[in-house]
Amino acid sequence: MHIQRLSYVMALLLLVATPVGAQQLFSSLTGPLSVEPVEDGAVTNVPYITWGGDVATFLANGGLETKPDSIYGKSGLKLKLTPGDDFVQQVKDYMGGKSPYLRGTFRMLGQASEVIGSDPRTKPVIILQLSWSGGDHVVARKDLRTLNDLKRDGKKVRIACQQGGPHVGLLFDALAAAQLTNEDVEIVFVDDLTGPNGAAEKFRNDKTIDACCVITPDMIGLTGGLDSTGTGAEGTVEGAHVLVSTQNMSRSIADVYAVRSDWYKTHREEVEKFVAGYLQATGEVTKMRDDFEKTQRMSNDYRQLLTMSQQIFGEDVLPTLEVDAHGLLLDCRFVGLPGQIAFFQQSGNLSGFEPKLTAALDLATTWGYAKSRKGFEPANFDYRQLANMAGVKYSEPKRVVKAEGLTEFPDDDLDAGTIVSFTISFEPNQTDFSVDRYGAEFDRALQSASTFGGAAVVIRGHSDPTKTLVQLIKSGMQKGLIRRSGQKGNYRYFLNAQGGNKELDLSQTETIVQLIESGAFEGAADSPLQTMQAALNLSQARAEQVKQAIIDYAEQRGVNVNLSQLQPLGAGISDPMISKPSNMAEAKQNMRVEFRIVKVNPEDLSEEDFDF
Fold first, then answer.
1. Gene3D superfamilies given for it (predicted)?
2. Which residues, in sequence order, are CB contacts of 84 under 8 Å at separation 6+?
3. 3-state secondary structure (DSSP) of residue 528
4. Rounded Cα distance, 104 and 258, in Å
5. CA atoms within 13 A on the CB side of 44
6. For residues 293 and 287, is the Cβ–Cβ distance under 8 A?
């Protein structure tokens, strides 16, 4: 069982005086604050939260207080790591000078942006991205199959989510992927991330709650596992399943450290040592974690690290080392040095600093946490220098990743794995997909590929079945296999092979395809089998043309893209919008390319896929 952010239970206690479902300005949570200079002292207070990314901080520091022989101790730093899961208190300490550091997700800082960004002295400088989350999920009841289903006519979908915690950003991204906002659903805010006042228990006990945002242990409790569906047995909820997960939406929740602007100006060297030490520790942690995962033999150093984490986080949070403490690290995707470069410096990274800042401020202002947009600044480090300080190899991330690994997707497996989808239409025999007409869709496809770094973007071409149907009827009547009755515009067709009593429904595409594939209608003047195959070939070619158009568009804009995520697939006539078109307008609805964001096994991806 993987454990994710359990001490966010106390984070952002935003509902102490807030009714369920209401949003509240972050400034009203902290109350009036005065900006005080950072306290002078031999030791600097640095907050941590309960997350796998912070285990590297423990290793670098040697524990809660800097040990002389630790990474930070050897660099001359003296730090005291303090609990930071109460983010409101973190902000109070930050503004009051008790600590120059803030530790949270990018969206959490965004929600507090109006408070921490209004004074130039406390305007945050983002110095470090620790990781991307792989352990947060939206669990839904059985009638919600994809993110598109979150918008429905009539009564709104009700989603339980902890107010102000990391899942607010997760929900924002999930809705955005389907081009929805918080106005399209009803968000039922709960006090805590987990436990009796968490979203999972709200979902379990209130059948009017359609979905909930949860951490891995709660997800397993509700569904039985990432790819399972709850049966109602052993505490699971019947029909509950994972609608979307950061296993696939892998670049949604970014964990970061920030420092006050005034302190950064006077303590830059100290901050650089902090970041370099963290990067060094990241390499050591990931090696120990990965070695244990491969060999199932735990080294003494890894056992000591997990034991220290268990002591700091508490045995109620991490009951076991092999499952819970190790699982916490498995849910954590450390970005390392290439990830810092990609996040802070690559202009084409759609999950980089500037896009994430825009999204964080969009969330803060549109969801009611702030009235105005107060941004942050990146640290603008020299990463070659930091690599030298950390003793790690300097390596720049690729802008275009050509890594192999994602498998082809059988057409009949797509529905079960689809997270969200959208389509573009085209004219008969169209081969050009211009930016002027399709630029918005290309942008959406590229953003989806970036946010859903652990998923495939299946580009599925479709063809209209009209010509195939016409040739099936002609061939069948010529060979005496089909009998027609009625008048033009109201014909009925019967299969003579079934004694003339079996009516042939041309709108049943699956049956039609099976009849054609049987070969019984071949040998007449027109071959429905050849026409159906030509339609399949055309749809595949069209999907590949759209993929190439997206690649060209990304290259022109300098946008990062993982080519192995873009999977062209031809559906032919197998899945029409209108099975039996009656005019050209209806036929054109079938001439389309569909974009599907599809789950893949995370093991099909390499670490390189997460560098940008």
1. OmpA-like domain, Periplasmic binding protein-like II
2. 47, 48, 49, 90, 103, 104
3. helix
4. 9
5. 22
6. no
pLDDT of residue 546: 94
Report residue 125 CA to chain centroid gap. Answer: 25
SS3 197: coil
Domains and CATH numbers, the chain: 41-130+256-390 (3.40.190.10), 136-237 (3.40.190.10), 400-464+531-610 (3.30.1330.60)
Strands (E), 141-223: 158-162, 186-190, 211-215
Q: Distance between CA atoms of 249 and 256, rounded to whole angstroms? A: 18
Angstrom distance (rounded) from CA 524 to CA 102:
75
Token readout for 550 is: 């997206």
For the chain, give the number of residues: 612
Q: Choose among 267, 305, 259: nearest CA to 90.
A: 259
Residue that has been written with the tokens 């990062």 in this structure: 560
User: Which residue type sits at 233?
Assistant: A
Reference 572, options 591, 553, 558, 587; nearest CA is 591
Concatenated DSSP letters of 320-364? -IIIIIHHHHHTEEE-HHHHHHHHHH-TT-TTSHHHHHHHHHHHH
Tell me the per-residue pLDDT of 593-606, one tens digit each, with 9 for 90 and over.
Answer: 999 999 886 544 44
CB 349 within 8 A of CB 338: no
Question: Which tens digits make up the pLDDT trace of 345-385?
Answer: 998 999 999 999 999 999 999 999 999 999 999 999 999 99
Work out whether strand 136-140 and strand 211-215 pair parallel, antiparallel, or are unpaired: antiparallel
Q: Output the CA torsion 388→394→397→401 (10° steps).
A: -160
Measured N-to-C along each axis, helices 336-345 and 268-295 cross at an angle, to the nearest 10 degrees, of 130
Q: Which long-range contacts (CB under 8 A, 24 or more apart) does 279-282 make?
A: 279/336, 279/337, 279/340, 279/386, 279/387, 279/390, 279/392, 280/60, 280/71, 280/390, 280/391, 280/392, 281/56, 281/57, 281/59, 281/60, 281/71, 282/56, 282/130, 282/334, 282/336
Question: For residue 404, with 0-12 CB atoms within 10 Å meaning exposed, 13-18 middle and 19 or more buried, which class applies?
Answer: exposed
